[in-house]
Specification:
alpha+beta, 6-stranded antiparallel β-sheet
């Protein structure tokens, strides 16, 4: 066995710098495209009033059902950090581009994984 991740087709998404409503829109839109550990009844909540809140979700990029999903409307920009294998990140980024206006902040290549730091705006 190689030392690959147990789920090379999944990506983890960390969302910050936005309201809980925009976080919910991003996760709901992504949940419409991929199976996830975050479902529609899992509502992002503000945990602390002064510290920035970060919302996390994991999406199975191999289980895509993105037909008919319309671009999302956000009230402001949303910062997203995405971690995953090369194939999963590429596929996830293609979906992001179809749903949002995506601005690259940084891309960190790794040995087995990539990190994608992007700013999402209304598509």
């Amino acid at each position: 066995m190689s030392n690959r991740q147990p789920h090379p087709e999944s990506v983890s998404v960390e969302i910050s710098g936005c309201s809980k409503d925009d976080a919910r829109i991003v996760f709901d839109t992504l949940c419409a495209c991929f199976s996830s550990d975050r479902c529609s009844d899992d509502v992002p909540e503000e945990v602390h009033e002064t510290r920035p809140t970060v919302w996390l979700g994991t999406f199975d990029v191999a289980d895509a059902h993105e037909s008919g999903v319309r671009p999302a409307r956000l009230s402001s920009s949303v910062d997203a950090d995405v971690h995953g294998g090369y194939w999963a990140i590429d596929r996830f980024r293609t979906t992001l581009d179809s749903l949002f206006t995506v601005h690259d902040l940084t891309l960190v290549p790794g040995d087995q994984e990539r990190e994608l730091h992007v700013r999402l705006e209304s598509g």
